[in-house]
Design a protein that fits this description.
mainly alpha; two-stranded antiparallel sheet
Amino acid sequence: MENSNPISPKTEKKSSWRHPAIQRMCFVGVFTALLCVLSPLSIPIEPISITMATLVLYFVGALLDWKWSSLVVLLYLLLGSVGLPVFSKFQGGFQVILGPSGGFLIGYLPCVILESLLIGFFKDKKWMYPIAMIIGTIVLYAIGVLWFMLYLGNGFGKAMAACVIPFLPGDALKIAVASIFSLRLRPLFDKKR
């Protein structure tokens, strides 16, 4: 009996790796790994450390759609909450999410979703990349500062001085870098869809 399938097993295996869903899952894995590796590397200022997490978030939001980018953040938060040392200063555990910097960790999710949606709607507009990253950062800061204020009972000015002002120059640089590279990389990611 002759095989009625025109695709040989060798061709079928090769084409399955090119399937968009498999490629997206690989991107999710790579970006989750990057977030887990770069987030613990921090400049330990108190009470909130400066990390490379936002740089990865900017790339995730710019290159993946909102569903896949939110999956990256959810996996990262899950890995950290079960105790893997993927949060700043190589910390892990659910207590970190419930601590003074927990609002920033939680804020990662709306940050990437908003950025992904804005860039997805206006992906041909180069100016939208930094604007979406700035808007996502504002939401991230708002959630983090509110959480910090409620957690420690600090006023708005003190929370801004501790949680926002020291981060502005670094985040501006990260946004510039992520915007430039994301503009070049986005067409490659769009081809994979």
